[in-house]
Amino acid sequence: MSQSLRSPIVSRMNVLMRACCTACVVLLLATILACSGRDRLPNVVLVIVDDLGWRDLGVYGSTFYDTPAIDSLARTGALFTQFYAASPVCSPTRASLMTGRHPARLGITNWIGGERDGPLLQAEYERQLALEEYTLGEAFRDAGFATGYIGKWHLGIAPYLPDSQGFDVTVAVNDGGQPSSYFYPYRDTRTPRLDVPDLEDGASGEYLTDRLAAEAVRFIESHRDGPFFLVLSHYAVHTPLQAPDELVRPYAERSQALRTSDPGSVPEGPNAFTKLRQDHPVYAAMVEQVDRSLGRLVETLDALGLAERTIVVLVSDNGGLSTVEGRETGMPTSNEPLRAGKGWLYEGGIRIPLIVRAPAVAPGTVVTRPGVTMDLFPTLLDLVGLDPRPAYHLDGSSLVPLLVGADRETTPVLSWHFPHYHGSGNLPSGAIRAGDWKLIEWFETGAVELYDLATDSAEVVDVAAVQNAVADSLRALLTEWRAAVAAAMPATNPEWER
After folding, report:
1. Closest to 396 (Cα-Cα) out of 416, 376, 410
2. Disulfide-capable partner of 145 in 74, 95, 229, 386 (CB 3.0 to 4.6 Å)?
3. Is residue 441 part of a domain?
4. Which of 154, 79, 107, 65 shows the shortest CA–CA distance to 352?
5. Is 424 part of a structural domain of the chain?
6. Can you give the residue range of the structural domain that contains 390?
7. Is the residue at 491 inside a domain?
8. CB neighbour burial string for 69-85, b if at least 16 within 10 angstroms, e if fewer
9. pLDDT tens per residue, range 87-104
């Protein structure tokens, strides 16, 4: 562990190095755009898959799920091996993606609608993304892009929907974080808040992931003269677990062939269990449907002659749902070898897939340096030649230097803040990663855990007791960071003992 984590000299040197690299990258991108003969800015298609785990794609090591289109996208672009969600749950991560600001700074630290106390009263949090925040939609719209948003939002209800946050066209945005049903008419009288609007002209048997892809194709075709910025935000692979029978059937057979005497899950925390195998047929079919939708978008870009001037990005909003409180079965996926899943600050809850295909990116690029959701805001602006560091505050840094191989020197210090209880069994906590060291702090007790991710990415061996100087340094850094962003903390619950 370097003793210079706090050194202002080192920090200033890193800033200067990054500025020099960024200047070189901007020149490189300008050269690439000029040589390609383009007379307009490139398009951007951002695909967000809800709850997609780091191990849920073939290119990330899954042998159970079939994802040929996404795997092909990775081979023709860049794959990030250590990219992180800003939060282990959806709304905070999505807020950070839309603004480039940390969820703790925004005050959106829980999934909107998550209300639960324990020995601590959960920290107060905002239930919508404030209209005063400057979003990706607004940044692209103000630069002359047509903007579209399709699917899950979960950053507030009207008037806080994407049509008030910079998006000209919005389709199928409901008031919650999942659909009532994945099958037409996408409604359920028991959960009207989750009904998916704007799709009333569908047909019996129509599947939501397919329909959202069709809406995305329609947007691309209508704006082929561009430039355009399109966000396709799938409700999949979030619950309810539903998929067409014909897709489920082959996975059910595959799952039967995998049955062994090995335990299907292991204990996690005081009252939770983590799934060890990928073997859920319905979830597998949902992943395949997402893959097919991505393939359809790529085929559309090819057919319209837009592939060479369109940036395609695929990312998740948190780790896969592999850990659940109080039961040993029913979790749809596994993040093995990463520990735990959605809702936890262990690697399985926050490490996620990120794939970027862009004109400046060499096919087969693999990025091993850590990055985080806030980085996507400046990265997308940078990739199209816009200012990646506008006047308002950003907590992220452009990943373009990494994408073109121009910066391998600086490694960011990443922090997480989740002062809430969660149905996965996780307790209020915070975490920080500096280099290969990662510390987790539990707010109920003040206890910490420390892991060396270089040798223990599964977070099995807690070395806090033997590396107490490192643990103390990281805890101090985490405390200072929380103060700097005015992070809300949970309070003692006076009613708990009663």
Report:
1. 376
2. 229
3. no
4. 79
5. no
6. 8-115+137-412
7. no
8. bbbbbbebbbbbebbbb
9. 999 999 999 999 999 999
